[in-house]
Amino acid sequence: MTNARRWPLTKTIDVEIYGQRYAISSDADEGYVRRLAHFIDDQMRRVAEGMNTTTPSRLAVLTAFNLAHQLFELEKKRVQGEADVERRMMSLMASIEEEVPTSLFR
After folding, report:
1. 60 part of a folded domain
2. Cα 8 to Cα 88: distance, rounded to the nearest angstrom
3. pTM tops 0.85, yes or no
4. Residue 4 covered by a domain
5. Which of 3, 30, 33, 46 has the fewest CB atoms within 10 Å around its CB?
6. Are 41 and 30 in contact, with CB atoms under 8 Å apart?
């Protein structure tokens, strides 16, 4: 009997982000990793458009800050959406209870 461990198979995927090459080790699908790299590259280029000059590390931090802001805003909308669904559900349940005779529930 072999003592084989079940570790995910990781592979190295070469990507380019803002003119720099990176070797990403991941067990994720290669296409997905490349999509992420392309997305980050696009975001960095958008941030750079509004700047005269900057260092790549400063640009990366500003891009990360913008992405974190977007993430927080989406999370806030998700929580608000869940609260709206809960409120509507409670309203519908109250309406149903008003319309349906209670004798049906006994």
Report:
1. yes
2. 43
3. no
4. no
5. 3
6. no
Domain with 29, as residue range(s), is 11-105
Q: Tokens representing 78?
A: 């998700």
Domain count, the chain: 1
User: Closest Cα partner for 48 from 21, 66, 35, 34?
Assistant: 66
Ranges of residues in the chain whose predicted pLDDT is under 50: 1
Q: What is the 3-state secondary structure (H, E, C) of 8-77?
A: CCCEEEEEEECCEEEEEEECCCHHHHHHHHHHHHHHHHHHHHCCCCCCHHHHHHHHHHHHHHHHHHHHHH
User: To which H or E segment does residue 99 belong?
Assistant: helix 56-99
In a domain, 17, yes or no: yes
